[in-house]
Amino acid sequence: MTLIVRFTNPYSAKTVKELLEEDLLIPRKIRHFLRTKKHITINGSPINWQSPVQKGDWIEMVFDDQDYPPKHLPFGDKRLVDCLYEDEHLIVVNKPEGLKTHANQPYEIALLNHVSAYVGQTCYVVHRLDMETSGAILFAKNPFILPLLNRLLEDKQIQRRYWALASGHFPQKTMIYRDKIGRDRHDRRKRIVDPKKGQTAHTRLTLLKEYPAASLVDCELKTGRTHQIRVHLAHHGHAIIGDPLYHLKKGQRLMLHAHELVFKHPLTLEQIRIQAPSKSFENGLPK
């Protein structure tokens, strides 16, 4: 499959080599192919590797199967995809609760399979949501954009905000939890607060509304540890309602929803803000 990438350069002036290597994160092997095949032009003209590229220049690159060998994923059902935002390179969808982000076994069909069917080609996971969690989730539509989105995630430039219905009441409107999180050696499904061996975790909470026995909080992730919000809230005595691992009372869905994603588009530097509606939070909260 041929992938053609066209965009107006949003980055500061530099050489072609620097642009491809530093800003676009194109691997050395693929940069070599672009050069030898003359698969890159600036403002419609062939380039020298040391040619200057100015902000606002029109860039076109052509990638083939030698650059990115095709990957095939079984397609799911495109009708199950609730698309919130889509462009040539990425897609954000509203994940339902009870569905895995990606399959763990070859025979499984997960959200990634449904999204790939919707797009019509194999897509790639940028970040994950627990199976029980609903809300906005980002996928790359091609292997070129994937490392750029991964860098945004690693550099904490993708802001993720969640709604959680937590048990009990909080002592103040804003709280920051920094407890380190590690594996629970007694239950491989779970994570625990582990001050000695755990990984750094940072969650900022803002109280939105109080109910007789629960509180609605906005949670902003500064790090992305497995079960981070669930573990932090449970550790401080405010387990999320319906949490099958960390809340004693069962019976309803996990009341955790990724309601907002904010990031700069890596090819335009445009600020993208996507919010995901949730019927559970609109209609299912206590009055």
TrEMBL record:
Q: Give the GO molecular function terms.
A: catalytic activity, acting on RNA; pseudouridine synthase activity; RNA binding
Q: Which residue numbers delimit the Pseudouridine synthase RsuA/RluA-like domain? A: 89-235
What are the protein's UniProt keywords? Isomerase
User: A GO biological process this protein is involved in?
Assistant: enzyme-directed rRNA pseudouridine synthesis
Enzyme type, top EC level: isomerase
Protein origin, superkingdom: Bacteria
Under the heading Pfam families, the entry gives: PseudoU_synth_2
Swiss-Prot/TrEMBL catalytic activity: a uridine in RNA = a pseudouridine in RNA
Tagged with keyword Isomerase: yes
Keyword check for Nuclease: no
Q: Where is the active site?
A: D130
Enzyme Commission designation: 5.4.99.-
- Function of the protein: Responsible for synthesis of pseudouridine from uracil.
Q: Which PANTHER family does the record cross-reference, listed alphabetically?
A: MITOCHONDRIAL RNA PSEUDOURIDINE SYNTHASE, RIBOSOMAL LARGE SUBUNIT PSEUDOURIDINE SYNTHASE D
The family annotation for this protein states: Belongs to the pseudouridine synthase RluA family.
Write the protein's name: Pseudouridine synthase
